[in-house]
């Protein structure tokens, strides 16, 4: 039988092989959670064993996106057991740790503790954890960077100047902490009218690509503003799990993240 020290070493090395990919944004409402859920599913469809941690304390939306709203995670020996979803991506959410409808007034250390419990949950064979971070550059992001050292960060922004300025701040935080930026995704980029099929750009377009070039970080691609993405997400049917053009789009993004 291994001694205590050996077990500890084993546990540490096991943990190291699990890569954490942070999905972050400078501000809320830009589609960070939507991208995190669909990326996780697309990575799983590439044959990765993927788990998803919803660390967005302000608006934990992964339970709804993945169709497991109201399902409480169980625990064994005080270790959380991730909630299984229909998409082969187990998930833990800040939302699952409080009663439904209860205001989440997390204080920094409490949120950090909850994040730690979720990252160190019983993820089994999972080799990749996608982390849906809260928007901005606050306590949870710092704890996550310092304690859990993600392998890389994907930044999501809409094309507006203001969103991009905030995204630049988030990029700066990861840069300073030595976390590699996997790349920037421009979401809600271009709107295809379902009636006339004309393309308009309510939030502009191309801004994220320009910023990526300026900052010398990879530009991963654009996701259009599409009714189908919103309605599928609300119905707990992430488009990445389907067979439509959006699934192809997310498969392409996942390929770049997985390189
Ligand atoms: P965040 O996590 O950045 O706050 P969400 O992922 O919750 O943002 O997205 C905010 C809203 O925008 C949700 O209703 C979501 O369904 C919708 N949404 C996100 N991306 C798109 C898109 N590309 N097309 C249409 N709706 C989108």
TrEMBL record:
Signal peptide start-end: none
Gene Ontology molecular-function annotations: 4 iron, 4 sulfur cluster binding; ATP binding; ATP hydrolysis activity; ATP-dependent FeS chaperone activity; metal ion binding
Keywords: ATP-binding, Hydrolase, Iron, Iron-sulfur, Metal-binding, Nucleotide-binding
A biological process from GO: iron-sulfur cluster assembly
Residues noted as binding ATP in the record, renumbered to the chain: 26-33
Record family assignment: Belongs to the Mrp/NBP35 ATP-binding proteins family.
Subunit structure: Homodimer.
Annotated function: Binds and transfers iron-sulfur (Fe-S) clusters to target apoproteins. Can hydrolyze ATP.
Protein name: Iron-sulfur cluster carrier protein
Organism the protein comes from: Sphingomonas kyeonggiensis
């Amino acid at each position: 039988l291994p001694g205590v020290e050996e077990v500890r070493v084993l546990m540490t090395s096991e943990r190291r092989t699990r890569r954490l990919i942070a999905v972050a944004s400078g501000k809320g409402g830009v589609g960070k959670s939507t991208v995190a859920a669909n990326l996780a599913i697309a990575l799983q469809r590439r044959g990765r064993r993927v788990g998803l941690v919803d660390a967005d304390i302000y608006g934990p939306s992964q339970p709804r996106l993945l169709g497991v709203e109201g399902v409480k995670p169980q625990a064994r020996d005080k270790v959380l057991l991730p909630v299984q979803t229909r998409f082969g991506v187990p998930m833990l959410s800040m939302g699952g740790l409080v009663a439904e409808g209860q205001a989440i007034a997390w204080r920094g250390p409490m949120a950090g503790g909850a994040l730690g419990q979720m990252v160190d949950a019983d993820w089994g064979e999972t080799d990749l954890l996608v982390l849906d971070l809260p928007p901005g550059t606050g306590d949870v992001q710092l704890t996550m960077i310092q304690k859990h050292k993600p392998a890389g960060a994907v930044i999501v922004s809409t094309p507006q100047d203001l969103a991009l300025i905030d995204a630049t701040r988030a990029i700066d935080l990861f840069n300073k902490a030595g976390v590699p930026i996997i790349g920037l995704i421009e979401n809600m980029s271009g709107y295809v009218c379902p009636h006339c099929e004309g393309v308009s750009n309510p939030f502009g377009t191309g801004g994220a690509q320009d910023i990526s070039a300026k900052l010398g970080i990879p530009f991963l691609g654009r996701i259009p503003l599409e009714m189908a993405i919103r309605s599928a997400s609300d119905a707990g049917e992430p488009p990445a799990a389907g067979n439509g053009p959006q699934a192809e789009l997310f498969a392409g993004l996942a390929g770049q993240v997985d390189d």
